[in-house]
Fold this protein.
Amino acid sequence: MAKGMLKGHSDNLLSSFYINYHMLLNSQRLEDIDVEYILARSLLQFQQDAEVPVLKAQLAEKQGQFKEMTFDNEQELENLYELQKLWKSQTANLRKVLFTPQRILPFLNIGRVIRLVDGDVDWGYGVSINFHKRDSYKKGNMKN
């Protein structure tokens, strides 16, 4: 928690239960119950902070395993990586050709399920309910 205060922002305090007024009053009646002890052991944040050393040990173990990894055929892995890059670029070029307006317009019928993707934004699936051809998409007058 101190790291967050040094950086200028506070950490979120996650609670696994809600403390109400009556709970605090009842705990004040009992002499041998420390309210701060109950709060510290009941908040989810403190429970998660208790798991930090275990998670750090697991991280160190995984980093050690990563450093020990070796590859016998690095050249083959490099070739595979280059082939995958080439395949992705060729697939993108094929999609550009296939999804030109003159090729796709005959398939845009009312009621057809379509997937809308605009650059990096994926709008998901939808149903074509209406369609109008624009002049710029006619065969002889296409714009890229």
